Amino acid sequence: MQHVHTPADAVSKLKKAAKLRVRAAPGTLHAYALDEVAKEAGYRHWKHVTACAMNSGSSTLAVATARTCTSDRFSMQQQDFTIVCGPSGSGKTLMAYDYALNAVREGRTVRVADVGGSYAKLAEVVGGTMLRVNSIGSNSQAFGDVPLTVVDFEGAKAAGAGALDAGSFPFVTNADAGEVWIIDETETIPFSQKELRLILERHLAAGGSVLVTMQQSPESALAQALAEIPTRANVRRAMVTLSRFRPMR
């Protein structure tokens, strides 16, 4: 899936290309020409183009992430381990959105762990999957086939489920090497520090990338505990501190 959002001008160009193809070969069906130009542009078929175009105009979030607000500065390499520290409103989630969308555009699978529904709209807009975890299990809602899954632990936390163990973490059971994991507001996720370290260490060792965000400072016990996770030499490590929100230009 290389096209999460398709702006209107791109759709217009594809339509013009299809018309030119029909004019050049009068026996060609217009629907067939649309499918062909769509496939050549990297889409699955013409309906894939229109679905992406509908997504890009469906909400303020979609319009923003479809164009200039998504920055290539926040794209991940094949193996990244990034810890982002900053107060509420400093732009941590916006940065995580960019990681997620850039990774999906590159064809990578993205999984997000969250508490409070901050990524629910993202899953809906791009056509991903929403998985809500509670104290007795989970329920899922698929909005499409984009390889982006948001796991919200609000139900488990609200029910007082306590710290879950690594075996119950939804990412672990079917994770593949090369996936991008985003753990948002890490201190709110209902896992013990020990279990979280174990989960992330295993994923990094398997070839995955990880971005974690937290409201605590880089000097906090949690930030330092995660920073000390051992990784291979080829893993690019970074600690980012955001002091206040600065809109990207």
From TrEMBL:
The lineage of its organism: Bacteria, Pseudomonadati, Pseudomonadota, Betaproteobacteria, Burkholderiales. Keywords: Plasmid. The keyword Disulfide bond does not apply. InterPro entries: P-loop_NTPase, P-loop_TraG. This is PhoH family protein. SUPFAM superfamilies: P-loop containing nucleoside triphosphate hydrolases. The keyword NAD does not apply. Residues 82-131 form the TraG P-loop domain. It comes from the Bacteria.
